[in-house]
Amino acid sequence: MAAVTSVQYFTERFSLTCNKPVSHLQLACCPSHCAVPWQDKNIRIYENNNLEPPLELTGHHGDVSAMAFGTVTDRLLLCSASEDYVIVWDIDRCYTQIKEGGIASGRVVGTLLGRVVHLSLCPLSAKMAACSGSRVFILNAEREEAPRVLKAHLGPVTASEFCPWDVNLLVSTSEDRTFKIWDMKKGDILFESAVLSAYPLLSLFFMEQNSQFITGSGDGQLWCYTLPVDHKCRLVTKLDLSKLEQKHERNLRKNISPQIRPDGATRNDVRGTVETAKPVLRIWAQKLHSSHTSLKQRGSCVWIGSSDGLYLLDLDTSELLMNLPLRGIISDLSISMAGSWAISNELGGNMCCLVTSLFGTSVALLEVNSARLDELCFRMATGLSVDEQLSAVPSSPLMTMSPLNAELAKHGPKPQRKIGVSCQKSVKDQPLVFHTQVKSSGYNTAPHRTMFRPKTNVKKKSISSATTITNTKCLLSEYPSHFEAPCMPYAHLTVSTTPTLVSSLQYSGDGKQIACGLGDGSVLLYNSSLTSNPAVYTGHSKAVNTVFWSQSKRWILSTSEDPALCIWTANASEPVLTMGVEQFAKPIRSAQFYYLDKFLLLASGSNLMLYLYHLDTTRDDIKRYKQRSKSKLASKFSMKSGTDISSVSAINDFYSYIVLAAGADHTIQVFDMNQGCMATQISDAHCRAAHHLTQNKGSPFCTQALESYNLFLSSALTDGLKLWDLRTARPRQNLQPKAKEL
Asked: Which tens digit of pLDDT belongs to each residue from 629-659?
């Protein structure tokens, strides 16, 4: 056994050489002890803080293939398995026997089960699961009994674990690339997954605080599932270790200084990520005990032991926090490629890792310094921010050449040309009617949605008006902060007699009205109580994509697949402004008012456009076809990769320079309209293109902290919601619906 010197993040406590390779054996490690095979049939027990002398256990007649620690009534137990026996050892009792001059002995609980590749004990250490071939044997850990056999996998079983919050549940994984959930009382299968990967599933771990479990495959894929009461597992997230590492390396090259990299490599020395499979050999959870507030909030961090090192993942954000490779951190580690891992939290807060060599016969005990890791996490988190921190609330005035300084030239009425006296006395053109206004024939009014209803009780009008005043007062009151979010349906309304898609909804700023865009090209305007008939606006020939209220609550903007953009007012059935095919080559996916209604911000294809506009509601009764409102293109921006824009978000309730745009290439780009350029880009924001972005735009019904306006949400199909911080361009949380909500 050789001792190795201490380094910054790793300390190799000891290393030993076995007489044959033990690369794929299940080793055992707990906060106080670790167990390694010795001379094939024996086991050596080392204290993590006192390596000499080890406790040697003898009793197996075959090669030891699996080991696992367990606890019961403050007693440390070790389970070991070979082809002949499965033995339970009481470690404290074995120490006493050795001190008294005897031989350490254990209790045989299983005989001739075949080659056992994995052992696990239930939380009470009363039952044991032994994986051998395609079967799982359930043994009594206290005495030898006939085992219960669980057999349903089509390939060798690689791992099995008891559910921490329900000891009657067992989850097993297999080389047939599926996992199964078993009822221990009846021996029945409660749930069986589909084939998850082309590679076998190798590891399994439970997250008790979230009622979830994680499984990993031989090609570096990770799946996180919920385990609800009905046992119908639902996928929460899927991660690829190689892709997470590539994204992590890109962030390091871009933003992290060389001195805070864990491997000490400089920015120019970072080698590209090699496209090799990273098998998930071991999964272990550890909560970071840090003095930094940002790290204290992380409660879903898991360590992944792979063949090339350790990876720390944050499941809330689906982000790789750091990787600690076996090669590159220090040069004198005895192991550079791992065959198996056994990980445990030490009593002092550090983490102990027992690792075997993939191609050699070495076994080493590594200690990870948690305090220095927490400090490294904090430094990396603060270092991954953008060069100049972005903020939704402006901290500087407008630049001279800013696109937001653009103004629309206002032209007054042209003066009448005076040619001569004869022209003034000549007969002027007169309309064909004798009135100043002509009643419309009704060809351009909105179609009637309901039949005529006679008024049978006129007195109800005064009652409803009083109710409306009362409801208005309720809407203007401040929303109580101690109330939970609404979860019960208040009203159910069918917007059309035929099946019609509701594509967009938005409340007005005061909460009194709701604008609704439909798939038949119409826009409906309801009051907030949904009690009266809606006002109908028809001007689109295809499905409406977006409806948006102005900050003044006077105008409603709508876009569709025409492509066309219309701006409506509540008391007119015709659009005040129409922008059509002559201005946009592709459909307008997203549009809104921007910069306190000064601009129209819209996305068409890969272009992000700012339009100045002037709205005039007056019309000439003779030339009704000619609109007096006008618009002018102020600025035009394009996505960096040329991809189409799927969603846009900007704050209109106060002055803000930041505009967010989601692309079809899975990126989110942040534009600074004050400088007129792209400020930063978030690559691989979701596994699919984000179909919606929304920022914290404030509300007149509640008060929020200034920092909360830098948060925004993104959503994508099959990838849930992600909460981002604009200042660091990193996710804060990965939001998934609860199992009962799916």
From this structure: 899 999 999 998 889 999 999 999 999 999 9
Helix (H, G, I), strand (E, B) or coil at 302: strand
Contact (CB, 8 A) for 672 and 719 = no
User: Which residues 6+ apart lie within 8 Å of 627 measured at CB?
Assistant: 575, 576, 577, 578, 616, 619
Instruction: Name all contacts of 395-403 with Cβ < 8 Å and 24+ positions apart.
Output: 396/674, 398/674, 399/674, 399/675, 401/676, 402/673, 402/674, 402/675, 402/676, 403/610, 403/634, 403/635, 403/673, 403/676
Inter-residue contact 740 to 714 (CB < 8 Å) = no
CA angle at 572 for the pair 570 and 577, rounded to the nearest 5°? 90
Q: Cβ distance 578 to 564 under 8 Å?
A: yes
Least confident of 137-151, 269-283, 639-653: 269-283
Which contacts qualify for 618-624: CB closer than 8 Å, 24 or more apart?
621/436, 621/437, 621/438, 622/431, 622/438, 624/444
Query: How large a percentage of the chain has pLDDT more than 70?
Result: 78
Q: Which two tokens stand for residue 348?
A: 């002092």
pLDDT at position 454 over 50: yes
Q: Residue 416 half-sphere exposure, CB side, CA atoms within 13 Å? A: 5
Tokens of 406: 């653009």
Q: What is the pTM of this model?
A: 0.69
Q: What is the pLDDT of residue 387?
A: 44
Distance between CA 695 and CA 686 in Å, rounded? 17
Is the distance from CB of 138 to CB of 129 less than 8 angstroms?
yes
3-state secondary structure of 582: coil
- The pLDDT assigned to 423 comes to 46
Q: Where are the alpha helices (DSSP H) in 230-329?
A: 241-255, 293-296
Structural contact between residues 333 and 308, judged by C-beta atoms closer than 8 angstroms:
no
Amino acid letter, residue 14 = F
Higher pLDDT, 331 or 689: 689
Select from 498, 514, 496, 517 the least CA-distant residue to 506. Answer: 514
